[in-house]
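Prompt: For my understanding, could you write out one protein's sequence and backbone structure tokens?
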Amino acid sequence: QNMGDLDASVAETQKVLQAIISKPKLTEALLKKPPFRFLHDIVSEVKKQTGFPPLADADLDSNNCKDKESKIAYLTKVIGMVTEVTGPITVKPQKIVAGMEPENTNALLQGLAK
């Protein structure tokens, strides 16, 4: 993937999510290599504002997502809920946790806003 695609994807993520949430701050640097905690904060804030995705309270507590397995389990749930609304998104929880394929992670974040 060339960086132009990622730049465009990041800009789109900022546009659609900033219409819904004011925090966390959606900086380009964070969206280009999103750490898990940042993603968890975004998902939790979107749910607070919109009720979507329909996660359990335990999932909204980032203390429950400390190790790799629990992070992957959490992301798998989020991806499932988002793709039910958006249709398939090519995104793998293992890649997200490893900080790889950020353009796919951005596609997932855009799906949250739909």
